[in-house]
């Protein structure tokens, strides 16, 4: 089945616009979270999970993370803060974790 595009507004106010396969986020799309941080993810999806290249931005702090995601978790990339400082994640012995200046662990910022 060919990917198609749609827009969904979820009951909590989150919005997804982009590709899907069988009503599941799949392909390239944008997810805007209805949260105080102004969180937005733009990038690749696979089977409803962030998977592949993408960018997570936080409009309230003007910060963003750009890199690779796997199974909805951050794998590797670069965090850029509001001042333009750039921090790159580095591999952790436990492949499911990354470190970013000691504050980036278990796929979370």
What does it look like?
By secondary structure, this protein is mainly β. It has one domain (4-99): Histone H3 K4-specific methyltransferase SET7/9 N-terminal domain, CATH 2.20.110. Helix content is 0%, strand content 58%. It contains no helices and 10 strands. The chain has strands spanning 4-9, 15-21, 24-32, 39-46, 49-58, 63-70, 73-80, 86-88, 90-91, 98-99. Strands 1-2-3-4-5-6-7-8 form an 8-stranded antiparallel beta sheet, with no helix packed on it. It has a two-stranded antiparallel ribbon with strand order 9-10. A hairpin with a 4-residue loop joins strand 5 and strand 6.
Quick structural gist:
By secondary structure, the protein is mainly beta. 0% of the residues lie in helices and 58% in strands. It has an 8-stranded antiparallel β-sheet with strand order 1-2-3-4-5-6-7-8, with no helix packed on it. Strands 9-10 form a two-stranded antiparallel sheet.
Secondary-structure map:
Blueprint: E1 4-9, E2 15-21, E3 24-32, E4 39-46, E5 49-58, E6 63-70, E7 73-80, E8 86-88, E9 90-91, E10 98-99
Antiparallel strand pairs: 1-2, 2-3, 3-4, 4-5, 5-6, 6-7, 7-8, 9-10
Which structural traits does this protein have?
Histone H3 K4-specific methyltransferase SET7/9 N-terminal domain, mainly beta, disordered C terminus, single chain, two-stranded antiparallel ribbon
């Amino acid at each position: 089945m060919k990917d198609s595009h749609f827009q969904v507004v979820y009951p909590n106010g989150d919005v997804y616009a982009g590709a899907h396969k069988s009503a599941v986020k799949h392909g390239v799309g944008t997810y805007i979270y209805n949260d105080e941080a102004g969180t937005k993810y733009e990038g690749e999806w696979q089977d409803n999970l962030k998977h592949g290249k993408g960018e997570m931005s936080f409009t309230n702090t003007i910060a963003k993370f750009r890199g690779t995601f796997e199974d909805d978790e951050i794998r590797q990339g670069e965090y850029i803060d509001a001042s333009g400082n750039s921090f790159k994640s580095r591999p952790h012995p436990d492949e499911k974790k990354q470190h970013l200046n000691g504050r980036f662990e278990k796929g979370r910022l």
